[in-house]
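PROTEIN DESIGN WORKSHEET
SECTION A - STRUCTURE
LENGTH: 450
TOKENS:
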């Protein structure tokens, strides 16, 4: 997996109205966690709606390597027979997490307090990403790690033989770091405490409670204080994975910028720690409504109804909203290009260390398509060109980043001239079926040179 396959160049052209229903895949964050917690429970966990993208399939393979029995029984339907907290076997081979930061960081946390050693690697994108943010806290439990310079993969983690409970304040707003510490805390006697100053996605906390762990969350002056009592017996669950709001963002945003469009995106998880993009779009004047709001499997869910919105205006996106839409800034920058006025996006330094430097990647491609973008270390701003004003006519680099690839594909759907993607293959990490789904709505996104 770490060897990247052949590039798949794609071209996205201006299209007629996007119409119809977009059934997007299962939530990536929840899918990873379902497999990992299923592997740490005693007995059989049943999962439906699992995202079968490359990232999550890598986590399934990893859980097998640590001794769990993981089986696909139908489309999106999986069974995991767990080994129990503290029951991981030592993998015989290197764990290759491909492109998945969530996969590698959560699994490192989960194994860090078990008496085993594992070596992790990934693709060129993942090998460039910082792992110190996880190896620092797991060292407090007693784990050791040996990676490349700057705390990069490949990296070997030696789990703590006699782990001790930890109280840890996350230095950056990161659900991956928070989750790695909580998963490490599972196999430790006593209470592990994680404090986060800004709330990040809380799927790990919700799911740990669902699996029967004792976990409390308090809002204090210090921040969000999460306390987990170690060494529970996790009870297997039946998990229905909601559809991914981060994937829904693409058909929703494409509908807002392509004239005449009207798209329904049903069953989208609207956990408040994930839904920031949709509120931001509404603040910009998008014709976007939530229908049939309900709760499913402990997560708020709604159907999203998006219609072409030629009167959107640039805004300052509140920085305190950043964590709840961190993966959606690339596609927001595309929408911003079709609004009038400037969209300012402050407080987003974490975008620099995602699957790519997402500010840099989007700024380069948008500028090549005729859009004015300004940037600083932790902010960027896009000047709106109006609903029909983006020139396009550019070849853009997708830099091994699925969300960059899908964002530029959407840009091409409403630009005057086509957008060429140097490589659309990263899309498969989180949204297999993106091309036929968008084509079914009316997009003209085709593979070129193949
Ligand atoms: C994720 C957390 C976020 C997000 C990523 C998924 C998770 O990363 O960008 O796509 O599932 O915990 P950070 O923890 O680095 O913010």
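SECTION B - SEQUENCE
RESIDUE ASSIGNMENT:
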């Amino acid at each position: 997996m770490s060897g990247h396959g052949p590039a798949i160049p794609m071209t996205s052209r201006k299209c007629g109205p996007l119409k119809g229903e977009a059934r997007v895949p299962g939530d990536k964050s929840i899918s990873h966690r379902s497999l990992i917690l299923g592997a740490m429970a005693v007995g059989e966990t049943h999962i439906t709606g699992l995202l079968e993208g490359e990232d999550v399939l890598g986590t399934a393979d990893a859980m097998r390597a640590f001794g769990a029995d993981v089986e696909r029984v139908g489309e999106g339907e999986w069974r995991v027979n767990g080994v129990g907290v503290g029951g991981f076997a030592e993998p015989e081979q290197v764990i290759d997490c491909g492109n998945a930061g969530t996969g590698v960081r959560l699994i490192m946390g989960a194994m860090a307090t078990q008496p085993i050693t594992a070596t992790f690697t990934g693709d060129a994108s993942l090998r460039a990403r910082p792992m110190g943010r996880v190896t620092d806290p797991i060292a407090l439990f007693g784990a050791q790690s040996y990676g490349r310079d700057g705390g990069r993969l490949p990296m070997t983690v030696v789990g703590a033989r006699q782990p001790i409970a930890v109280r840890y304040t996350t230095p950056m707003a990161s659900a991956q770091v928070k989750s790695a510490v909580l998963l490490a805390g599972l196999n430790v006697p006593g209470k592990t405490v994680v404090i986060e100053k800004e709330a990040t996605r809380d799927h790990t906390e919700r799911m740990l409670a669902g699996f029967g762990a004792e976990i409390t969350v308090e809002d204090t002056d210090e921040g969000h204080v999460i306390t987990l009592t170690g060494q529970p017996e996790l009870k297997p669950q039946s998990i229905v994975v909601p559809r991914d709001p981060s994937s829904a963002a693409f058909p929703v945003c494409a509908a807002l910028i392509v004239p005449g469009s009207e798209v329904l995106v049903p069953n989208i998880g609207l956990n408040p720690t994930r839904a920031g993009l949709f509120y931001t779009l509404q603040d910009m004047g998008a014709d976007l409504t939530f229908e049939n709001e309900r709760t499913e499997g402990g997560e708020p869910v709604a159907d999203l109804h998006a219609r072409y919105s030629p009167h959107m205006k640039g805004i300052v996106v509140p920085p305190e909203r950043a964590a709840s839409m961190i993966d959606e800034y690339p596609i927001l920058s595309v929408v911003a290009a079709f609004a009038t006025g400037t969209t300012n996006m402050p407080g987003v330094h974490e975008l620099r260390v995602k699957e790519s430097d997402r500010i840099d990647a989007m700024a380069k491609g948008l500028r090549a398509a005729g859009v004015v973008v300004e940037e600083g270390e932790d902010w960027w701003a896009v000047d709106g060109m109006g609903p029909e004003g983006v020139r396009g006519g550019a070849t853009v680099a997708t830099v091994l980043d699925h969300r960059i690839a899908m964002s530029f594909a959407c840009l091409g759907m409403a630009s005057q001239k086509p957008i060429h993607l140097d490589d659309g293959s990263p899309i498969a990490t989180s949204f297999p079926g993106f091309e036929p789904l968008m084509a079914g709505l009316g997009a003209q996104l085709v593979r070129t040179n193949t």
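SECTION C - NOTES
Residues 29, 102, 174-176, 179, 201, 326-327, 350 surround shikimate-3-phosphate (CB under 6 Å).
The chain has two domains: 10-26+243-447, 28-229.
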